UniProtKB/TrEMBL annotation:
It comes from the Bacteria. This is Formylmethanofuran dehydrogenase subunit C. SUPFAM superfamilies: Alpha subunit of glutamate synthase, C-terminal domain. Its EC number is 1.2.7.12. It is an enzyme of class 1 (oxidoreductase). GO terms for biological process: methanogenesis. It comes from Methylomarinovum caldicuralii. The keyword Oxidoreductase applies. The keyword Oxidoreductase applies.
């Protein structure tokens, strides 16, 4: 069976809440067409906004200008979702399992409070990637998020578990208030990396412009577990899967001593 493809008829005037489509696996194409989606003060049938083709409701493809489509894949289980372009805010929020592949950029709070599965973003991600929602105390809690472009500020804020991989740059306060888990950044990070970090690891390919003064320089080390950690990423379509980008020699900074202080920033050493 071919994947169920939803093609936007025209760009919506209001932002659209795509949450109901997360139950698509349990529905028939006709039932999906009859679902109603909130857009502003009005609810629209799916087939009023999209043209539907295909039969396999476990695989969804979204086509068209999806910048105003929010909550794609929210709390989804075992769905394979592909967005052939940009996506709105909260993409993959709370996703339990499956895969969300966005071939363009995503807006704020992508993969926030993710529980499992794989989120792949071929473009750039907005602020608060994998973070907690305002007022909540736990960010992403499992799974892997891969960004092939850049990530905004507060990447992984209050991350509890899981892995965030950024092939490009990350903004300010990368890994802020990290509880556990790992964030790896191949490019440059902005100011105050690891601010308020409690436990967990911030793994960097490049030396930050300044490491916060509440971190202690623990010197250079050869860490035997790093090659094993990189080997666990070989299944990804990413530069992180390339053995040429792996290393085991790092400079370690322990902290944040203004918080619990059991975390670390590891910077690739020559």
């Amino acid at each position: 069976m071919s994947a169920l493809t939803l093609t936007l008829k025209e760009e919506p005037r209001q932002r659209v809440d795509m949450s109901p489509l997360s139950a698509a696996r349990e529905l028939t194409p006709a039932e999906i067409a009859a679902l109603r989606l909130w857009a502003g003060k009005r609810r629209w049938r799916v087939d009023e906004l999209f043209t539907l083709e295909g039969e396999d409701t476990a695989r969804l493809v979204l086509r068209g200008d999806c910048r105003k489509l929010d909550y794609i894949g929210r709390d989804a289980r075992d769905l394979d979702i592909t967005v052939e372009g940009n996506a709105g805010a909260y993409a993959g929020m709370g996703m339990r399992s499956g895969r969300l592949h966005v071939k363009g950029d995503v807006d704020l709070f992508a993969a926030c409070e993710l529980r499992g599965g794989l989120g792949q973003i071929d473009g750039n991600a907005g602020d608060f990637l994998g973070a907690a929602l305002p007022g909540d105390k736990r960010g992403m809690r499992g799974g892997i998020v891969l960004v092939k472009g850049d990530a905004g500020d507060r990447c992984g804020d209050q991350l509890r578990r899981g892995i965030i991989l950024v092939e490009g740059n990350a903004g300010a306060y990368c890994g802020s208030r990290l509880i556990a888990g790992t964030i790896a950044v191949m490019g440059q990070v902005g100011e105050n990396p690891g601010y308020g970090l409690r436990r967990g690891t911030l793994l960097l390919w490049r030396q930050p412009a300044a490491v916060p003064p509440t971190y202690g320089d623990c010197g250079t080390h050869t860490l035997g577990f790093l090659p094993l950690w990189f080997a666990g990423l070989r299944h990804l379509d990413s530069r992180f899967a390339d053995p040429a980008n792996a290393f085991n020699r790092v400079r370690r900074y322990g902290g944040d001593l203004a918080s619990v202080g059991r975390g670390e920033i590891l910077v690739r050493a020559a």
